[in-house]
Amino acid sequence: MKTLKYILRIFIALWYLLGWMLHVYLGLFSPTIYKEFGNTSLLPALTRIWQGVIMPNITIFALFLAAFELTVGLLIINKGKKVKLGLSLSICFNFFLILLGLGMPAAGAGNDFIINRMPNLIFLLIQLPLLWGQYESTVLEGIKQSFRKTNK
Questions:
Q1: Given pLDDT bands bounded at 50, 70 and 90, which one contains residue 152?
Q2: pLDDT tens readout for residues 50-104
Q3: What pLDDT, in 10s, does the model give residues 107-136?
Q4: What φ, ψ does residue 78 adopt, rounded to 5°?
Q5: Exposed, middle or buried: residue 83 (CB in 10 Å: 0-12, 13-18, 19+)?
Q6: DSSP per residue over 6-43, as a string?
Q7: Are 9 and 140 in contact (CB under 8 A)?
Q8: Contact indicator for 101, 42 with CB cutoff of 8 Å
Q9: How far apart are CA 104 and CA 73, in angstroms?
Q10: In this predicted structure, what is the pLDDT of residue 1?
Q11: CA 90-63-69 angle, 5° bins
């Protein structure tokens, strides 16, 4: 079980540590890609905020998103309470994305759920058990410990 939690932690951290670069690129060179996100929201108020506030300032928001993702990734690869803070931020972010959707309009509620909400629901659910873990070492320290054990 400890190995599975460790693998999940690495996967989640890498998701964020690689994702921030994508948002920097998209925010600077292809910001209109974010437009569809406002069209898949479950909340009409969120759609209005997306269209009226976020999209007119999307480059700034995309760069904030990149900074957020980098921070979350770094917290998750850390140790102690920082890991749990990173996981908590990630879970909240994924809940927000469930409400917002992934920007892929789909016909019907079932298709919308599968396409726009289910990926983030799954990502959120795999993180929940990690909140009860203990993190005495960083990911890098854990990798070093694993190599030491296999080389003995």
A1: low
A2: 999 999 999 999 999 999 999 999 999 999 999 999 999 999 999 999 999 999 9
A3: 999 999 999 999 999 999 999 999 998 999
A4: -80, -150
A5: buried
A6: HHHHHHHHHHHHHHHHHHHHHHHH-GGGGGGGGGS-SS
A7: no
A8: yes
A9: 25
A10: 58
A11: 20
- Cβ distance 34 to 26 under 8 Å? yes
* Residues 41, 6: Cα–Cα separation, whole Å: 33
pLDDT top residue among 106 and 149: 106
Q: How many CB atoms lie within 10 A of CB 50?
A: 23
**pTM, two decimal places:** 0.91
Contacts of 25 (CB under 8 A, 6+ apart): none
CA–CA–CA angle 93, 38, 63 (5° rounding)? 55
Cβ atoms 91, 128 nearer than 8 A:
yes
